[in-house]
Amino acid sequence: MNNREVMEERNEAKTLFGFWTYLMTDCVLFASLFATFAVLRHNTFGGPGGAELFNLPFVLAETLILLTSSFTCGLGMLYANRGFKNISLALFSVTFLLGASFLGLELHEFHKLAIEGNSWRRSGFLSAFFTLVGTHGAHISAGLIWMIVMITRVNLKGLTPRNLQRLKMLSMFWHFLDVVWIFIFSIVYLFGVI
Amino acid sequence: MFASLLGKLNTDALPKDLVTAGGAASMVFALLAIAGFLTYKRRWTWLYREWLTTSDPKKIGVMYIIVALIMLLRGLGDALMMRIQQATSVGAHQGFLDANHFQQVVSAHGTIMIFFVAMGLMFGLINWVVPLQLGSRDIAFPFLNATSFWLFAAGMALINLSLIVGEFSAAGWLAYPPLSELQYSPGVGVDYWIWALQIAGVGSLLSGINFFVTIIKMRAPGMSLMKMPMFCWSVLGTMSLVIFAFPILTATLGMLALDRTIGTHFFTSGGGGNAMMYVNLIWAWGHPEVYILVIPAFGVYSEIVATFSRKPLFGYKSMVGAIWGIVFLSFIVWLHHFFTMGAGADVNAFFGIMTMLISIPTGVKIFNWLFTMYRGRIQLTSPMYWFFGFIMLFTLGGVAGVILAIPPADFQLHNSLFLVAHFHTMIVAGVVFGYMAGLTYWFPKLFGFKLNEKLGKYAAVCWIGGFVLAFTPLYILGLMGATRRMDHYDASLGWQWLFIVAAFGVGLILLGVGFQILQFIVSIVLRDNHRDLTGDPWNGRTLEWSVSSPPPKYNFALIPKADKIDAFWAAKQDKSASKTPEYEDIYLPKNTPFSMIIAGFAFLVGFGITWHIWWLALASFVGIIASIAIRTSDEETEYRIPASEIKKMETAA
Amino acid sequence: MENKPHKSSHNHDTHTPSVSSYVGGFILSLILTLTAYFLVQRHVSTEHTAISHGVLVFMITLLALIQLLVQLTFFLHVDTEKKPRWNLTVMLMALVFLVIVVLGSIWIMNNLNYHMDSNQDQINKYIRSQGDL
Questions:
Q1: Both A27 and A62 in a single domain?
Q2: Are A116 and A169 members of one domain?
Q3: What pLDDT shows up at residue B1?
Q4: Domain for residue A47, yes or no?
Q5: pLDDT (average), residues C72-78
Q6: Domain for residue A49, yes or no?
Q7: Would you tell me which of A87, B117, B214, B227 could form a disulfide with B140, CB atoms 3.0–4.6 Å apart?
Q8: CB B161 within 8 Å of CB B573
Q9: A73 and A120 both lie in a single domain
Q10: Is residue C5 pLDDT above 60, yes or no?
Q11: Residue in B264, B629, B632 closest to A121 by CB
Q12: Digit-coded pLDDT (tens) for B508-557
C-alpha cells in the first residue's frame, strides 16, 4: 500500500473509533433518562401506571421487529464487506422497512395514549415514559433517514471505501439502538407491569 | 396573522430601562464599529477565507480565545455591577439595580464565566497546543472541530442577544426548578439560558470526542502514552470527563425545556414532578464540569514549572496517576453541592468522605510542582508569577473546600459567601490564572512574537492582589452568615465595610485587565522587539517548540520521532548530525462554510424555540440535517501540498 | 476516489465475522427476549402470584444483561477487537460512570424522597381521594 492508502486506513480506524466513542456518550444520555424514569416511575399523580397502560403483546411485536431489523442490518454489513452490492442493498432495505414498522407501531401506541388523556402532560411518570421511549424513537428516525441516504448513495456510487465506512457506522448505530431497546423493554415495560 | 408568525416576539422585548438599554447599545455599537472597520479596510474576504471558514485548529484556537476574552469583559462588567450594588445597597438605599435585574446580572455572570470564558480559554489552548505537542499535523476530525467552535459562538450569540431582545434568566447560573419552570419564570430568560447552553454543550461534547480520539490515535511514532507531555495527559483526562458528563447536561436541559414547552412534569411543583431530581442530575454533570475546567490548567502549570525550573517535571508517573484519581473521584462526589437538600446522614457522610479524598491526588500534584522547582534554576517569568499566585491561593481555597465537605459544617456555610469565595478561589486562582499563564507561554508560538513581560507581570500582580482584596472579605462575610446573591441587606449587620473592600478588589483586578489590554497593544505595536526567531523562545522541552513561530499550516514537514519524555529537550541534547530530510505530499482539510452554516441554523433553532416561533425552529432544524447531508456528500474535502512545495517552504525559512 | 465496487478493505481492527455468528446471535436474543416475556406473562396472568416479585426482577435483569453481552459479541464484535482494545476500554469507562450515575441517583433520590416526604403512594392516595381531576 502506498502512503496515501496507509493514511486512509488510519483515517478509517480513527473515524470508526470516534463514532464508537460518540455511541458511548449516547449511552450516558440514555442512562440519564433511565435514571429519571426510575425515580419518577411511581409519580402517576393519581393516574394510571404501567400496569394499566402497557399492552405487552404489542410491545413484544415491536421488540421482535426491531431485533430482526438488527439481524438483517448485520447481514447487510457482512455482505457489503464482501463486496456484494445488490444483496447488501436488499438487506438494508428490509432493515429500513422493519425499522419503519417499529416506528409506526410506536407512534400508534403514543397516539392511543394521548387521545385517551394519558399524554406526557398527565404525570411525571408519563413525562418520563414518553421522553425515554420517544428519544429512542427519535434516534430510530435519524437512523432511518441515514439509511435512506446510504441506500441511495450505495446505489449510485457503489461500495466505495467511503460508503463502506459510513455503512459500518450506520450499522453500529442501529445495533446500539437495539441494545438500548433491550433495556427499555425490560425496565420500562416488563418491570412496569409486574 | 403576522403577529403569530413571530410567536411571542414583539417590540415589548426591547430594553425598557436605562442600564439594560445602555448595555445593549454599547454591544450594538461595538459590533457596528467592527463591521465598519472591516469594510473600511476591505477585509471581509480575508476574514471569510482565513478565519471564518478555516479548519485549522491553530486558528480555531485563536477564535475561541478572542470570544472568551470578550466574554471575560462582559462577565467582569457583571461582577463590577454586583460589587457596587452590594457595597451601596444597605439599609435605606436600594442601590442602582432592582431585585430582578440584580438576579439577571448574577445569573449572567456565572453562566458567561463558566461556559464561555473558562471553557473558551480551555478549548482555545487545547486547539493550539495538543496537535503540536503530539507531533501531529492536525486533529482527528477538523470539520467537527470547526463546527464545535461555531456552536460555541452560537451559544454566545444567544446570551448576548438576550441583552438586546428580551431578558435573561434570573434563576442563577444553574436555573433550579421550580423557579426556572414556566410558573415562576414565564418570560424568555430561562429559555435563552437553556438553548445557549444546550447548543454550546453539544459543541463541547463533540470537541471532547475529537480530542480524545486525537490523543489516543494520532501521536507521533514512538510517543507512547507514558511519554506524552503532561499537558496532553491532562487533556486526555479532561476529555474523558467531557464525554461522560456532558450528555447528562444535554438530557437535563432537554427535560427542563420539555417542561417549559410541551407541558411535561419532570421537575414541576405539581403533576408528579420532582424538582430535587434536577438538582441531582445537574450536579452529576456540574461537578465533573468544574474538574473539566481545572485539570487542563493543572496541565499548563506542569509545562510551565518544568520549563522555567529547567528541570524535567518531578514524578511523571504519579502526576498521571493523580489525574486519573481526580477524574474518577470527580464522578462520585456530586452530592456535596446539595448536602442541605435533605438526604440522610448515611448519604451525606459517604459523599462528604469522597469529597475529602479528592484533596489527596490534588495534593500529590502540588507537591510534585514544588519538587520540580526544588534545585531547579528558576526563571521568574510572568507565567511563573501566575503560578505562584495559584499555588498559594488555590491551596488555601482548597482547604476551605475540605471544610465545606464536612456536612454539618456545610449546613452553616452552604450558599453563604464562604462558599462563593471558595469556588471563586478555585476558578480564578486555579483555572483563570492557569489559562492566563498558558496564553502568555504559548502566545509566541502562535504569533511569532512574545508578549511584553513587564506589563504581564504588572497584570499578574494586580490580579493576584485584587483577588485577595475582593475575596478575603467574602470568606469573612460568609462565616458571619452572609448569603449569596443578596441585592440588599440591613445596615445593622455591620457588613458594608467588607463589601466596600471587596469592591476595591474588583477595581484592582480591572486594573490588571487594563494592563493586559495595554500589554496586547504594546506587544503588537512593538512586535519587532519581541520577535521569536528560533521557534524556541523559552528553551522549551516539548515538541511544539521544535517548529517555527508561527508554525507552518501543516505543523510538521516531517513527522518527528518522539520516543522519550520531553522529546524536544532530548533532541536538543543529541548533537548527532541529522539526515537530509525526505519530504512527502501533505494533505490538509479544505476550508468550508458549513461549520458556520450548521451553527447558524442551531442559533435559529434556539431563538425560535425561545420565542415560540415554531416554524423557524422547525425549518432551521431541517436546515441542519440538510447541511449535514450536503457536507457529507462532498468527496473532495482535502487538498494536497506537493512535496516539492514543502521543500521550498522549509528551506526558505 | 474510486467509484467501482470495492472488495472489503482488510479489516485490521476486527476479524471478519460469518453469517452463522449473526444467526446465532439472533436466535439467542430471540430466546432471551421470549423467556423474559413469558415469565412476565405468566406472572401477570396468575394475578402476580406465580413467581415472587424479587425473583422476577432478578431474572428479567439477568436476561437483559445476558442479551446485552450476546449482542455486544455477535452483532458488535467487541470481543474480536485487536490490541490495543480502545473500543473496549472506552465502553468499560462509560459503563462504570453510567452505573455510578444511575445507581447513585436512584440511591440519592430514594433517600431524599423518604426524608422529604415525597412518598408517591401517599400522594397518589390523596389525589384519588379528591375525586376526578
A1: no
A2: yes
A3: 56
A4: no
A5: 92
A6: no
A7: B214
A8: no
A9: yes
A10: no
A11: B264
A12: 999 999 999 999 999 999 999 889 889 999 999 999 999 998 999 999 99
- Please report the pLDDT score of residue A8 as a whole number: 81
What is the domain count for chain A? 2
Q: Cell numbers for B265, please give them.
A: 412534569
Q: What is the reported pLDDT for B577?
A: 62
Dig out the grid coordinates for B401 from the structure. 473546600
| Mean of pLDDT values over C86-107 | 96
HSE toward the beta carbon, residue B651, CA cutoff 13 A: 10
Do A23 and A61 fall within a single domain? no
Kindly determine whether residue A124 and residue B140, on different chains, have CB atoms separated by under 8 Å.
Answer: no
Query: Is B140's Cβ below 8 Å from some Cβ in A?
Result: yes
Do A68 and A145 lie in one domain? The reply is yes
**Which chain B positions have a beta carbon within 8 Å of A123's beta carbon?**
265, 271-272
B277/A contact by beta carbon, under 8 A: yes
Residue A31's nearest CA partner among A135, A119, A174, A143 is A135
> Based on the domain organization, do A65 and A23 belong to the same domain?
no
On whether any CB of chain A is under 8 Å from the CB of B258, the answer is yes
Mean pLDDT estimate for chain A: 95
The structure's pTM equals 0.95
- Count of CB atoms situated within 10 Å of the CB of A105: 16
- Cβ neighbourhood burial of C45 (10 Å; 0-12, 13-18, 19+): exposed
Q: Cβ of A145 under 8 Å from any chain B Cβ?
A: yes
Cα–Cα–Cα angle for C122, C123, C126, rounded to 5 degrees: 85
Checking if the pLDDT of B353 tops 80, the result is yes
- The chains in contact with chain B, meaning 3 or more Cβ pairs closer than 8 Å, are A, C
Task: Indicate whether A110 belongs to any domain.
Answer: yes
B105-114, B277-286, C10-19: range with lowest mean pLDDT: C10-19
Contacts of A127 in chain B (CB under 8 A): 255, 258-259, 264-266, 271-273
Cα separation values, B14 from B7, B303, B475, B500, Å? 15, 48, 39, 33
Q: What is the ipTM of this complex?
A: 0.96
Residues A87 and A168 in one domain: yes
Q: Which domain holds residue A97?
A: 55-193
**Which residues lie closer than 8 Å to B296 by C-beta, 6 or more apart?**
B122, B125, B126, B231, B234, B235, B238, B434
Q: Do C114 and B344 touch (CB under 8 A)?
A: yes
Return the minimum-mean-pLDDT range out of A59-73, B172-186, B564-578, C65-79: B564-578
A79 within a domain of the structure (yes/no): yes
- Quick check: C83 contacting B, CB < 8 Å? no
* Cell numbers standing for residue B615: 416554524
**% of chain B beyond a pLDDT of 90:** 89
B267: closest CA among B251, B279, B249, B283? Answer: B279
Cβ-Cβ contacts under 8 Å for B155 (sequence gap 6 or more): B115, B116, B195, B196, B197, B199, B200, B201, B203, B606
**Same domain membership, residue A132 and residue A170:** yes
Provide the pLDDT confidence category of residue C13 given band limits of 50, 70 and 90. Answer: very low
CA distances from B422 to B398, B402, B429, B471 (A): 7, 10, 10, 9
Distance CA A136, CA B417 (A): 43
Q: Is B347 on the interface with C (CB under 8 A)?
A: yes
pLDDT 10s digits, B129-170: 999 999 999 999 999 999 999 999 999 999 999 999 999 999
CATH number for the domain harbouring residue A87: 1.20.120.80
Q: Which cell is B28 given?
A: 450594538
What residues contact residue B425 under an 8 Å CB cut-off, 6+ apart?
A: B393, B394, B396, B397, B398, B400, B467, B471
- Listed by number, the residues of chain C in 18-77 with a beta carbon closer than 8 Å to a beta carbon of chain A are 18-19, 22-23, 25-26, 29-30, 33, 36-37, 40-41, 43-44, 48, 53, 56-57, 60-61, 63-64, 67-68, 71-72, 74-76
CB A72 within 8 Å of CB A167: no
Q: Determine the length of chain A.
A: 194
